[in-house]
Design brief:
The protein is α+β, with helices and mostly antiparallel strands and about 180 residues long. About 30% of the residues lie in helices and about 40% in strands. It has helices at about 30-45, 50-70, 70-80, 125-135, and strands spanning about 1-15, 15-30, 85, 90-95, 100-105, 140-145, 155-165, 165-175. Strands 3, 4, 5, 6, 7 and 8 form a 6-stranded antiparallel beta sheet that branches. A two-stranded antiparallel ribbon has the order 1-2. Helix 2 packs across helix 3 (about 70-80). The longest helix has 18 residues, at about 50-70.
């Protein structure tokens, strides 16, 4: 007999907080079935990467929150890790029409800085494209490269941005 132990995160939502706890699953198999069982359970494990649908819903929820709570409270909550708007690689960011960052759940040090002309590794200016999309079209998807706060690597990202009042806010997912 061989034993397969799987350790995976289990997410539990309590109000506005996301609590991550770890669960263990222990299974016993005959030695010849152990490799097949490992492959089966690895393939069946849910992906922790965010999806385009999750990013869009998160962005729409942020836009609604600005309307309901006001910009000052919303921006503070978007930036705080425990403000209800940071969930793994999903976080809210907001820019005014000049490119001044008003909120950033992925890197609070960005708040108050003009990031309009920051370039990604390909020389593109993602924040300029985000601001342009929001202020010219009202909403839509923008593709760019950006540091993933979970993996700490530069990755392809797509963000759904929405203009709300005098800011463009968005939430993106990493394509890996």
């Amino acid at each position: 007999m061989c034993e397969l132990v799987i350790w995976f995160p289990a997410h539990t939502r309590t109000g506005r907080k996301l609590i991550m706890r770890y669960q263990f699953l222990r299974l016993e198999f005959w030695p010849t079935a152990c490799v097949a069982a490992a492959a089966l359970f690895t393939a069946a494990m849910p992906s922790l990467a965010a999806t385009p649908e999750q990013a869009k819903v998160f962005s729409e929820r942020a836009a609604a929150y600005i309307e309901r709570a006001g910009e000052e409270k919303a921006f503070a909550d978007f930036t705080r890790p425990d403000g209800g708007f940071v969930d793994g690689e999903l976080y809210v960011f907001c820019y005014d029409h000049k490119g001044i960052n008003k909120a950033h759940g992925g890197n609070p040090a960005f708040v108050g800085r003009n990031l309009l002309h920051i370039k990604d590794p390909d020389g593109a200016e993602p924040n300029a494209r985000i601001v342009k999309m929001g202020f010219e079209q009202g909403r839509g998807w923008v593709d760019f490269k950006w540091p993933n706060p979970v993996t700490k690597r530069i990755e392809n990202k797509s963000a759904y941005v929405i203009r709300t009042r005098d800011v463009t806010c968005g939430v993106g997912y990493y394509k890996g």
